[in-house]
Design a protein that fits this description.
The chain is an alpha+beta fold. The protein has helices at 2-26, 32-54, 62-83, 88-92, 94-122, 138-154, 170-176, 198-201, and strands spanning 128-133, 157-162, 183-186, 190-193. It folds into two domains: 2-122; 128-204, Glutaredoxin (3-Layer(aba) Sandwich), CATH 3.40.30.10. Helix 1 runs antiparallel to helix 2 (32-54), helix 1 (2-26) runs antiparallel to helix 5 and helix 2 (32-54) runs antiparallel to helix 3. It is globular, with a radius of gyration of 17 Å.
Length: 207
C-alpha cells in the first residue's frame, strides 16, 4: 500500500511538471509540436493516476500499470526526439529551450523511478535503459542509433539524459557513478560504459 501511494505521489509530481511545461510551451508560437506531445503525456499521466486510485482498494493491476507507463515513456521518447532536433534550440529560443529540456529530463527520471517501483510491486519483466550522453559526441550518437534499433527489436523503455546538463539532475549521476559518456544502466543495476552493442546489452534483458 505504501509503495502504491508513493507511485501516486510521484505521478502527481509528473502531472504538475507536465502542466508547467505545457504552459511555457504555449507561450511560443514555434513550439506547437512540443505542446501537442506534452499535452498527450499529461493526459496519459492523469489517466494512469485515476486508474491507480481506482484499484487502490483492490489487487494491483500490474498489466494495466505496465501498459500505462509504457505509453507514457513512448511519448517522452518522441518528445526527446523533438527537443534533440537540429532546429529545436533556434525555434524555441535559448531560454525556453533550456527550461523545457531541464523539465523534460526531470520527467524522464521520475518516470524511470516509477518503473523501478512497478518492477518491485509486480515482479515484472520490464526492460528499462537509462542512457547518459553528450552533445556533439560521436560515441554518444552511435550509442543512440544502437538503442533506436534495440527499442524496435526488444521493446525497450529508454530514458536518454544529457550528462551534466544541470545540477538538478546530478543526484542520479552520482548514484550510478557516471563519469563518462556514453554510459547506460540496463534494468536499474547493470552499468555499461562506452559504446555498447546488442552483444553486451541483450544478455542483461528480461525475456
Amino acid at each position: 500500500m505504501k509503495q502504491q501511494l508513493l507511485i501516486i505521489l510521484l505521478l502527481v509530481c509528473v502531472i504538475f511538471v507536465v502542466g508547467v511545461i505545457v504552459g511555457n510551451a504555449w507561450r511560443s508560437g514555434s513550439s506547437s509540436e512540443i505542446s501537442k506531445i506534452l499535452r498527450q503525456s499529461e493526459l496519459s499521466a492523469e489517466s494512469f493516476l485515476i486508474e491507480q486510485e481506482l484499484f487502490e482498494s483492490f489487487e494491483t493491476n500490474c498489466e494495466l500499470a505496465k501498459k500505462r507507463l509504457s505509453s507514457l515513456s513512448d511519448e517522452l521518447w518522441k518528445l526527446g526526439k523533438v527537443l534533440g532536433g537540429p532546429e529545436a534550440r533556434k525555434e524555441l529560443g535559448e531560454s525556453d529551450y533550456d527550461m523545457l529540456k531541464r523539465k523534460y529530463h526531470l520527467m524522464q527520471i521520475r518516470t524511470y523511478v516509477l518503473y523501478k517501483k512497478l518492477q518491485e510491486d509486480c515482479h515484472g519483466q520490464i526492460n528499462v535503459i537509462l542512457f547518459y550522453f553528450r552533445q556533439e559526441d560521436q560515441d554518444s550518437a552511435e550509442q543512440g542509433k544502437i538503442l533506436d534499433i534495440l527499442v524496435e527489436k526488444y521493446g525497450l523503455n529508454v530514458f536518454a539524459v544529457e550528462y551534466k546538463y544541470s545540477k538538478e539532475l546530478e543526484f542520479l549521476e552520482d548514484y550510478y557513478e557516471i563519469a563518462e559518456t556514453p554510459s547506460i544502466i540496463v534494468n536499474f543495476d547493470n552499468k555499461l560504459v562506452g559504446v555498447s552493442g546488442e552483444d553486451r546489452i541483450a544478455p542483461l534483458l528480461h525475456g
